[in-house]
User: Which sequence fits this backbone?
C-alpha cells in the first residue's frame, strides 16, 4: 500500500500536456528501455573505457545471467590517471580470475551517477513544474532533480548526489555534484574509481527512433545485447527484452559529460540511448545477504531506520 501511495503522489503533480506545450517543454513521458550496458562513445573526443575481453568472437555475444565474459576495463585508456588505471587493471585481473569486485549492484547499494548510466536498462521521467523525478527499474531506485535551482553552498554529499536541472529549448540539462563516495562506489562497470570531485552533466533530448535503433545496434556489436529472442536486436531493448512500442517515432538520447580531476586526465563525454518500450513497470529488489561476494568485509545488508507499519 505504501508503494502505491508514493507513486500516486508523484503522478498527481505531473506537468499537464497543455502547460508543457505552452512552455515549450519536451515530452519525455513513457517507459524507456535500452538493450545494452555501458556507455556509448560520443561522436568525437575522448572515449569511455571498453571491455578488453569483448573482442573478436566475444564482441557482440548476447549478455545472459552468469555471462562468462569478464569485466576487464581498458586500463590503457588515456583518460585515466595512473592511480586510477592501476585500480582498473587490478579489478580487471580479479574479474578475469572469476571473482567479482564490489560495486553498487552486487552490494545492493544505490546506483549513483555516473555508474547508473552504465547498468540501468529502464527508466521513466516524471516531469513536474518544480522538479523531475526519475524512476529506474533495477532495485526500484529514484532520483530527484530540482528545476531552476542552484546547488547548496554547504552541500552534504549523498549517495545520489545533488541534482539540479533546467530546460534549454528541447533539452533537459541536469547537473549533479556531491556524490558520497563509499567503499563500493565506482564510475562504471569496470570498477573505475570515483572521487568526491565527480561532476556529471546530463543532456536529455529526443531523437528519431531510427537513429536510436542504429545507436543501440552499434553498441551491441561491441558490448553484446541484453535482449530476449534469438540473436541481437535493437527492437528489443530494455530489461528482459521488452519490445519497442511502435506508437512512438522518437528515441531518447542522454549525452553525459563526466569530470573528475582526481581520476581522469580530462573531462570526457559519452551517450546513453533509449527507446520507448511496451511493458508494465517491473518491481525488483536486490537479494539480501548477497553483499560480500569477495568475503573482504564489504558488508552492506539493507536495513530500514524505522518500521513501515
Assistant:
Amino acid at each position: 500500500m505504501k508503494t502505491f501511495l508514493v507513486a500516486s503522489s508523484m503522478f498527481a503533480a505531473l506537468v499537464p500536456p497543455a502547460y508543457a506545450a505552452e512552455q515549450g517543454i519536451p515530452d519525455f513521458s513513457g517507459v524507456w528501455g535500452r538493450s545494452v550496458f555501458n556507455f556509448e562513445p560520443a561522436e568525437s573526443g575522448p572515449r569511455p573505457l571498453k571491455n578488453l575481453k569483448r573482442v573478436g568472437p566475444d564482441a557482440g555475444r548476447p549478455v545472459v545471467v552468469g555471462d562468462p565474459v569478464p569485466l576487464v576495463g581498458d586500463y590503457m585508456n588515456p583518460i585515466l590517471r595512473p592511480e586510477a588505471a592501476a585500480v582498473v587493471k587490478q579489478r580487471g585481473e580479479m574479474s578475469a580470475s572469476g571473482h567479482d569486485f564490489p560495486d553498487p549492484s552486487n552490494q545492493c547499494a544505490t546506483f549513483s551517477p555516473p555508474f547508473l548510466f552504465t547498468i540501468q536498462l529502464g527508466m521513466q521521467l516524471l516531469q513536474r513544474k518544480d522538479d523531475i523525478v526519475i524512476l529506474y527499474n533495477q532495485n526500484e531506485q529514484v532520483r530527484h532533480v530540482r528545476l531552476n535551482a542552484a546547488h547548496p553552498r554547504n552541500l552534504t554529499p549523498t549517495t545520489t548526489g545533488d541534482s539540479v536541472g533546467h530546460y534549454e529549448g528541447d533539452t533537459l540539462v541536469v547537473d549533479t555534484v556531491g556524490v558520497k563516495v563509499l567503499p563500493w562506489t565506482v564510475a562504471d562497470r569496470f570498477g573505475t574509481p570515483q572521487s568526491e570531485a565527480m561532476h556529471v552533466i546530463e543532456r536529455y533530448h529526443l531523437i528519431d527512433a531510427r537513429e536510436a535503433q542504429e545507436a543501440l545496434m552499434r553498441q551491441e556489436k561491441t558490448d553484446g545485447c541484453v535482449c530476449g529472442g534469438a540473436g541481437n536486436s535493437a527492437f528489443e531493448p530494455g530489461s528482459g527484452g521488452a519490445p519497442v512500442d511502435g506508437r512512438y517515432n522518437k528515441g531518447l538520447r542522454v549525452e553525459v559529460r563526466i569530470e573528475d580531476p582526481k581520476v581522469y586526465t580530462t573531462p570526457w563525454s559519452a551517450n546513453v540511448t533509449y527507446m520507448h518500450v511496451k511493458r508494465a513497470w517491473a518491481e525488483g529488489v536486490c537479494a539480501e545477504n548477497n553483499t560480500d561476494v569477495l568475503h573482504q568485509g564489504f558488508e552492506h545488508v539493507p536495513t530500514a531506520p524505522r518500521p513501515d507499519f
